Amino acid sequence: MSDTGRMVSTGVPKGFSDLFGVRKRDGKAFFIEVKNEKGRTSKYQDNFLRKMKENGAIVGVARSGSEAIKIIKEEIQQSFS
After folding, report:
1. Residue 46: which domain range?
2. How many other β-carbons are positioned within 10 Å of the β-carbon of residue 47?
3. Could you state, in chain order, the average pLDDT of each consecutive group of 10 residues for the chain (81 residues)?
4. 14 located within any domain
5. SS3 content of the chain, % helix, strand, coil (to 5)
6. Is 2 contained in some domain?
7. Are the CB atoms for 48 and 80 separated by under 8 Å?
């Protein structure tokens, strides 16, 4: 929301990931949703991650910094329905 209480669009789709970037060694895009131990992804986040994976990106849900690094290194494989 803006200072006036009106909704403001950031221009990114619903469910867009918390962390995103490009892996330097091969130019592969990554999208990572960050959650705490009990946190769950929304249907919008699941849909976004699934679409990105279908298009060749590295995707995942990380619950720690080390887990995010493992996702980027593709040491952790996750699926999204």
Report:
1. 19-72
2. 16
3. 73 94 96 96 97 96 96 84 60
4. no
5. 25, 20, 55
6. no
7. no
